[in-house]
User: Fold Uricase from Patiria miniata.
Amino acid sequence: MPIQANGRELKNKMSTSPQVEFVSKGTYHGKHGVRVMQHRRQGGTHSIREITVKTLLGLNTRKEYVNSDNSDVIPTDSQKNTVYALAKAKGITTPEQFALDLCQHFMGKYNQVQWAEITVEDAPWRRIVDQSGKEHAHAFIQTQEAKRYCVVKQERKGLPIVWAGLSDMRILKTTQSGFAGYFQDEYTSLPETDDRIVCSNIESKWRYSNIVGVDFDKTWELCKVAILDEFAGPPDIGRFSASIQEILYQCTQRMMKKVAEVDQVELDMPNIHYVFADLKKIGMENTGEIIMPTSDPYGIIRVAVSRTHSTPNSL
Assistant:
């Protein structure tokens, strides 16, 4: 049997514990991976919207950690059930609006909640279309050019801050890209080029300075198309880019021009390398037709810009 420490020993042990303070933004509890589908019937025509939700709640007390007092803790199971309840009561129109509804609910119902952060990811369902172009009334297929998500955070006595975003948008162009004039030293082995294949798996998010009257579906599509248009250029001739950095910056410019409510953009464009396969060892010449896709290592290139003198606000 282990020897039980007496009260004096416990007190001495506690007195020697390190002095710490809680990091507010890093202390929370929540629920991850809450999946819900809304299915509606309008006569013979059905509609669906499926999302995955993550809830995070930061409380204004730490007694559950230091005093073994759980009286202010909103169980993660309750948070999960709240997602289902609000989907029934409010409906799911857009990921952004549903996240706003959840923030408003948690902040309004629980006085002990200091801040709430809601992430919503949209499942890319669309109607099946027959050969004549007619959409099916109740059959759907998942097609994904990019994952759509949003992050909404609200602090007590503050306005909600809305970020929308996309990820896993894999894009490639076979020419009209170069990379030259970079800093070189004894560790440089990369040859300069004015014609290369560029491939990336894009991730981007953008913050709204104002959400009043914003059509979140439309603005998300506008931002996605802005990235694609800038990357590709005109359909017949494309557009030359001297670096991925240049592409990134021009994408942010186009996104902000298209959507006036966007006041900050963060854009990641990893450089996934496609290289010429070495066919000499099998007695063949590769004139550029046979390309070897690689996965690792890859370059990490990122830009973050905001409008000058911009102050985010919301509802």
User: Anything to note?
Assistant: The chain has six helices and twelve strands.
